[in-house]
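Researcher: Last one for today. Full complex below.
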Amino acid sequence: MRLLIVEDDNRVAAALAGVMARHGFTVFRAATGAEALARLPDADVVLLDLGLPDTDGFDVCRRIRAGSDVPVIVVTARAELSARIHGLNLGADDYMVKPVNGAELVARIHAVMRRGRGDAARGRDDDDRTVVAGPVTIDLAVRTVHVGGAPVVLTRREFDLLAALARQPGLVYRRGQLVAEVWGTYDASAERTLEVHIGSLRAKLGDHALIETVRGVGYRIVADAPGGR
Amino acid sequence: MRRAVGDGMRGRLLSILLVLMGLVLLALGVPLGRSLADRQQQDMFLDRLGDTTRFASQAGQASGPVDLGLLREGLVRYQSVYGATAAVLAPDGAVLAVSGSTGPLGLDEVRQRVANAAAGRLSDVPGFAWPWDHRPLVVAEPVYRAGDVVGVAVTVSPADRMRAAVLRGWAAIAGIALVGLVLFVLAATRLTAWVLRPVRRLDAAAHTIATGDLDARVAADTGPPELRRLASAFNEMTDALAAALEQQRAFVANASHQLRNPLGALLLRVEHAAMEASPEVATELAEAEEEGRRLSRVLDDLLAVARLENARAEPRRLDAVALLADRVRNWRVVAAKRGIDLMLEPTPGAWVVADPTALGSCLDAILDNALKFSGEGTTVRVTVRDVPGADPRMVDLAVADEGPGLDAGELARVGERFWRGARDQNEPGSGLGLSIVRTLMDPYGGRLHVEPGAARGLVVAVRLPTDR
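Model: Here's the assembly. Have a good evening.
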C-alpha cells in the first residue's frame, strides 16, 4: 500500500517513514502542499501535516478532497478543538495530534481503509476477490484455498487468519490486530494461539515464505500481484 | 463597594481651596471694615470738633449775661437739631451754660477731656470703638480770651447712629464676601471635577486591568495636560503589559507546539527501534516511549494553561449542587475502578456565580487529584459548605479525601505551577492541575482553598461568590 507523507519537517518525516515502512507501507513523501497535490495520484492513503511552508494544510486537505476520495489522515501538532473539527469538516478521514504512536497510526489507517472498503463493497463485491501468491490461490468468496491447484482444508480460524492477511497483500498486520480480528479478543495468551495458528497455516500451505514474519511487528503475505486495489 | 478614589481627593482639594479663599477674604475684609469704621468716626469727630470750636469762640467773645444768654440759646438749638448735649464750663468744671440736662456732663470721659482742654490741650481723635460700644463721642475745646483759657466748650454726642452705619457697612462687606465665596466654591467644584475626571478614569481602568481585563483604556482627551499625558502613558503601559503577557502566552503556546515535532520524531524513532530490538531492549524502549508520552502530556497541560489565560470567563448563575452531582456521576466510574467510594453529601442548595465550563474543569482537576491520591477502600466526599468563619457571601465546593494529605509547608505550595508533593513525584501528571484551577477561578473572585482533612487526608475547595 502506498502511503504519502505530507510533512515539512525532514526529521519527523524520516522517523515516520521508517516506522511506516516497517509496517509494510510503500512510503513516499511531499514537503510542500504543491508537491503533495502533484504526487497525490500515486497514493493509497495520505498523512497530512497542517503546518506546511507554502500553503495552509487545511487548504491542501480541501483541494485533495475536491478531486479525490483517497483517505486523508491529518497528523499535526495543532491540538485545538477548533482545528480538529475544521480538519474533519474539510474532508479528513481522521485527525491525530503529534506526537503520534506508529501502532495507533497503523490501526487508524486500517480503520479508515475498512470504511472505504465498506463503501466500495456495495458496488464492487470486493470480498469476492481471489488472491494469488505463488502457488497459493485464496478465494475469499467461497472460502477455499488451493496450493498448486490442489485444495487445502483449513479450520475456520486458520482461514479467517489467512483472509485477514490476504486482504492487503504486502501490508504488515500487527499481532494485536490479527488477534482482535480473528478471535475478537486481546490478551497476552492470545498471541501464543496466533503463533500456533500461523505455524499450522504454514505447514498446511507447504510454503513457509508465503506468510512472512516481520520481527517486532507482525505478519504479512507477499503476493504476486495485487488481487484487489 | 469600593469608594471611588475621586471623592476623598475632591473633598480634600476643595477644603484646601476653601481655606485659602477664606484667608484671602479675611485679609481683605478686616482692614476694609476697620478703615470704614475709622473714617465714619473721624468724619463725625471733625464735624463735632467744628461745632465745639464755634461754641468756644462764641464763649470767648461773650462779655456779659446777655451774651451768655445768647450762647445758651445757641446751645439749646444745637441740641434740638443734633441731639447732642453742648455746654460751656468754667476751667474748674462749673457749668456756665448748658443746652439741657447736665447728666451727660458727669461721665468720666467728659471730666477727663474737660480737664485736658482746661489745660490748654487740643482734642485728639478718639480711639477705635466697636459698633456695639455705646459710649458717646465727647469733644472738648478750650475757650480763650486774650490768650488765657477762661473755660471749656464741650459737646457730648450719642454715637449710636454713626455706629449703626458702620455695622451696615460691615454687613455689606460680609455679604459681598459671602457671594464671592459661593461663586468661588462653584468654580472650584467644577475645576476639581475637571482635574479629577482623568484620575477617576485612571482608577477605574487600573481596577479593571487588575481584574484581568487588559482591554481597558483611558480616554486621554479631558483634564489638565499633565493628567492627559499621564493617561496616555498609562495606556501605553497597558499596551506594553498586554503585549508582554500576550508574548509570554504565545511563547508558551508556541514552545509547546514547536516541541511536538521533535518529540514526535523522537517517539517514532524509539518505537521503530523497539520493533528491531530484542525483547529486553524493547521493554526498555517502550518505557522510554512512555516517558516521552509523559512529556507530551506536560506540553498539553502547558498549552491548556496558555489557552485558559487567553480565554474570557463568562460568569453565570449556576446551581452548585446540580453541577457537583453531575461531576460526581461522571467520576464515579473512575472511582469504582480504583475501589474508592465517591459520594455527594446531602447539602442545602446553593447558587454560585462562575463560568460553567471553567468551574467544571476545576472540579474535574480536583476530583482527579483526590482520586489519584486516595487509597483503595477510602471515601471521597464532595459537598457544598459555608466558608467557616469567613465571608458569608462566599461558599466552598469542597472535595475531601482520606489520602495521605500534605504537611503545612506543602499546603502553602499547592496550586503553584508544576509543584508536586515530594511523595507524588512518581504519580502520573504534570503538576499543573490545581494551577489550572487557580488560573480558571481567578477572573471572577474564585479561589483555590486547601486545608488538612478532619482526621486525615486533604480538603480541596473552590471558594466562589454565592448568590443565595
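Confidence is low (pLDDT under 50) at residues 119-126, 225-229 of chain A. The first strand of chain A starts at residue 2 and ends at 6.
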